[in-house]
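[09:14] KT: can someone run the structure on this one? pasting the chain below
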Amino acid sequence: MVTRLAKLNQCIIDCRKCPRLVAWREQVAQEKRAAFRQEEYWGRPVPGFGDPRARLLVCGLAPAAHGGNRTGRVFTGDRSGDWLYGALHRAGFANQPTSAHRDDGLRLRDCYVAACVRCAPPQNRPTIAERDTCLSYLVEELRLLKQVRMIVCLGGIAWEGTLRGLRALGWRSPRKQRFGHGAEAVVGPYILIGCYHPSQQNTFTGRLTEPMLNAILSRVRTILADLKSY
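[09:31] RB: done, structure tokens below
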């Protein structure tokens, strides 16, 4: 399974299916942000990251132009990642609270982090066609990560993308499942939990606070402990 996951990640890295996203991610990697002018940008699709035997999958929207698109690791090198990995560390899913670059020693335990779209999109807004094109990668991750039972969806697009991915695997909810912070849905063998995305738009305005994010992961811990008892 680990070998198959590695092959999938290489397919993601090599992907050039969406011309607009390819052009944008490579333009950003060439022009760079002034603060990172001396760094070599990744400038390619960003694969998932974490424990292949994870029971928890965290799904976001897409890499940030100067975050994952720069570092090559999902939720790495930007404020959103600081919030996410800090919370994962506090909940015991990560060995350290920071994620700066691919070789910083970060390890995830019982957790895997992915996204619905693997390339940084302009204005952080992939088109519907681009989301549909990228969906197959999330579907394959769900197929390969056989221990996953809980999925934290960071934002409404990740929530909807995850539901579509599960439908592609044959799992359907009996009713419409709407996104909300703390919303829960059971779809086949999976339990989905909604969480506001840790973007600066949400964290700077107080829409998402550290206690709110901690509470989501505390809820995950409680459910996983209950599942383990069966």
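[09:33] KT: thanks! The beta strands are 49-50, 56-60, 111-115, 150-154, 184-187, 190-195.
[09:34] RB: yep, looked fine to me
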